Here is the input.
Amino acid sequence: MAVTVKGFGVCMKSELWIAVRSSSTYLAILLPSTIAVVYLAMSRISELAIEARKQFTNVEIPIGEDYSTGYGHLVDGMLVTLAAVVLIVTTYAAWSFANDCRTGTVRHLITRVASRNAVILAKVVTIHVIACLAFVLAFAIAYLLAGSLWTYESVVEDGYELIGEMEIRSEILYGLGLATITIPACIALGSLVSVSASSPVQSTVAILAILVIYGFFQPYFGSYAEYCFLTFTPLLFDASYLREVSEIVRGYSDVYISDQTVRLNLWIPVVQAIGFLVLTYFVTERRRL
Amino acid sequence: MDNQVNQEYSPTLSIANLHKRYGSHDVLNGVNLEINSHSIVGLVGLNGSGKTTTIECLLGLQRFQQGIIDVLGKSPDQIFQLQGKVGAVFDQPCLYPGLTVRQSSRHTKSVLRNVSSDPEELEDLFRLTRYKDFKTRKLSFGNKRRTAIMQALIGSPEFVVFDEPFIGLDAEGVEDVLNIIQQVHNDHGTSFLLASHQLPYLERVCTHIAILHEGTIALHDDLENLLTSQSVNVKIHSPHCAKIAEIAKANHKIELKTQHSVDSVVLSLADMTSAELNTLLVHNGVSVSELQVVRQSLNSLFRSITHQDLDEEGVSWQ
Here is the structure.
């Protein structure tokens, strides 16, 4: 069966036309940035509170030695923010098509301007655009805020540079790359759930259940967990490489990631994203709309 | 029927041997229906007879097990290639809840090619101008339906499918919709398929009627033919009703339907006009004070096919 996506351009126009007039789009884009701001602000307030308490009571508080520079807080902020981005766009993907089916609006496009697959592909692309905007905005805000609340500098202990700024930056970019490469697979999974569900409530509950249940049971899968893209995704139960980067940029040298894990992190999300999209195509072709 | 489209005679819609099954339940069992251009066809049937399923199949919203559907030369899964020549209004208003009425019509205009009509004009036509800045989710059901119908007519479609177009509309709304259907049909030659229970409304606008019963089209013809080809009912006021009953009994062309009172009877005539009946009665010495031809209604025709007493179902059958 030939894959037809005729009318994709019109569908994109329609999706973007609706998206810029939808409050849920703005919520999806702005919420991760808000979370980043709140997280970094609370981290700073917490630090200031500890310092103030130390000055007033002259008592050392055993909170552990921390070599956090701005980079450490930036990575921590991005861990939380990326988890928010992933959760939001995955849930949005799961809700979106199912909701269009419930309201019946998808029928107008299918009867007048586009094929079924063009509609779903346009939706997937639009959600990627939203995810990109949410991520870029959140990263820019977190970068500026972390830079203004702390200082971006290399980690130095007893006059010895544990890790230089260049290396920190490259590790952060590498960690972010490995984490964000899983987002298309998340969106594709959300879309598959969306086209398979009979209502938006069902699809939203189903995708959240999948994410939470996988998080609970992931430790039991052992090394097999590396064959699921969710293992590399920053989520509530995070096992992504970005978590390790958070340690590296604080000067911890005992962080290790195997080449095989990196290879799987690079390939598994891509392969599984394609698999989910193919399944989405078949379900969309057959279901009642 | 093959998929080739005859250029000289191309029907707007052609459905051949359509079968649709939900699990083990056959809903459509060989539906055949043809709609020519410049016609308004009423698709009527009991609840669950498959009207909505037929519409969803022909619009490519549902897959079917067997049959061939041709809409303006396209199969249902290619219907979008007609670029808005087919419009549809479904039993629920399919609107983006976060858009206003004006935005809804602009959105439709933005995705269709070569739309010359102005959304403002249509809003005016549908009496929606004062709601133009209302989000569609805040509209009453009737106004949502008006908005949905307005959207379907943007782009001057050649064929419009309505599933229960009158649900949720007040008397004024029904009147507006009927007038607009008639106006669009007259001005642009648009064909309509109206699936509805509201037989009196269909009777007002439809040129053809198709009755869907037990998974097939039990009857499909020109409305005028349908109503006139059936037996003619005649109501007679006369002091000699007993004698009229005797004449009816003796003549196979006349059937006594009901006797309302001692001076009023209803006769059903087959192959006989009311004038011939009058002559026959006069020849038999029966004086008639009033002879009234009772026009066959779509309702009674529908009942005679579906064998259902639908009068109890409410005002829509009146």
Observations:
- Chain B has two domains: 13-227, 231-295.
- The mean pLDDT of chain B is 84.
